[in-house]
Amino acid sequence: xxxxxxxxxxxxxxxxxxxxxxxxxxxxxxxxxxxxxxxxxxxxxxxxxxxxxxxxxxxxxxxxxxxxxxxxxxxxxxxxxxxxxxxxxxxxxxxxxxxxxxxxxxxxxxxxxxxxxxxxxxxxxxxxxxxxxxxxxxxxxxxxxxxxxxxxxxxxxxxxxxxxxxxxxxxxxxxxxxxxxxxxxxxxxxxxxxxxxxxxxxxxxxxxxxxxxxxxxxxxxxxxxxxxxxxxxxxxxxxxxxxxxxxxxxxxxxxxxxxxxxxxxxxxxxxxxxxxxxxxxxxxxxxxxxxxxxxxxxxxxxxxxxxxxxxxxxxxxxxxxxxxxxxxxxxxxxxxxxxxxxxxxxxxxxxxxxx
Length: 355
Ligand code: 2NL
Hints:
Layout: H1 18-34, H2 38-49, H3 54-61, H4 70-99, H5 123-136, E1 141-142, E2 148-150, H6 151-154, E3 179-181, H7 186-195, E4 200-209, E5 221-231, H8 236-251, E6 257-264, E7 267-276, E8 293-302, H9 304-310, E9 318-325, H10 326-334, H11 341-344, H12 347-352
Parallel strand pairs: 1-4
Antiparallel strand pairs: 2-3, 4-5, 5-9, 6-7, 7-8, 8-9
Helix pairs in contact: 1-2, 1-4, 2-4, 5-10
This protein binds 2-{3-[(4-chloropyridin-2-yl)amino]phenoxy}-N-methylacetamide.
The site of 2-{3-[(4-chloropyridin-2-yl)amino]phenoxy}-N-methylacetamide (2NL) has 17 residues, from α7, β5, β8 and β9.
């Protein structure tokens, strides 16, 4: 069979020999080098190397060539194939490099995509979301409020004395016109009580601000979750039961909770509460400093003076309130040694934390 039909117009009607293949190679390499776009380059590839291209045709036609010339022609055809493939690849690289950044030509839709990973939920978000879910089962809803607060909502309404050290400019970020960055999320609960009659059952997660110098366990910007339950005959027993239920849902069914007497101006009586150490089970280890207990935060029965400030009748209702630091719980839960890791947003760190 003749190769005529494969040849460029003008050459048709002739049989092919070794010098024809050499000429064809020169032409193919020239066309590859001249291609100005990825599309044009692909057309050259299809023309010569494609399934119905010139080269496969030559290969098929070899069997009809002069037996004396056949080996040399086969070698030349193979050279053509290899050199053209190499030139196409090189030219593709040049075109990509040359047009990188300027749009169209740089984009090769045939390349596989670059996997960027799914990322990971931040441990602070995880603790907040899980706490919301646990208290939801106890009938609590979520309340929100402004980060920029009045001195009244952040301090006065909470029965914090005028000369209390937490009001000091050393401890609070004061803004213009007597405003401040809230130092706890309690003002959210004050606002809720001001705006609706009892009963109230809410938790308030959110950002808080204190003039702390950053170290492994302090950050000027941190997160807190406070809870408030107001109704007829709410007691300290309700507080103890609900905090214990929360601790066991969050940290494990065998966690114990210990309550110690304390003082806060906004609650009376007040307690601090500890969880038994989830690492050693209470036996004593490095994490709990051999005590078997890990200090979590404070709570108590809402001070009647706070109820009067928001217009609730302390003879008709009682309530409990608690607060906790989200960073502290996340660090305990995930074994994080330095609070600053929570703010670096290094994905290697975030993805290393298991459930
Ligand atoms: C802590 C833990 C606490 C409250 C927050 C609160 C809120 C209202 C009324 C009464 Cl509206 N109390 N919140 C109570 C006890 C502890 O946070 O260690 N704070 C210094």
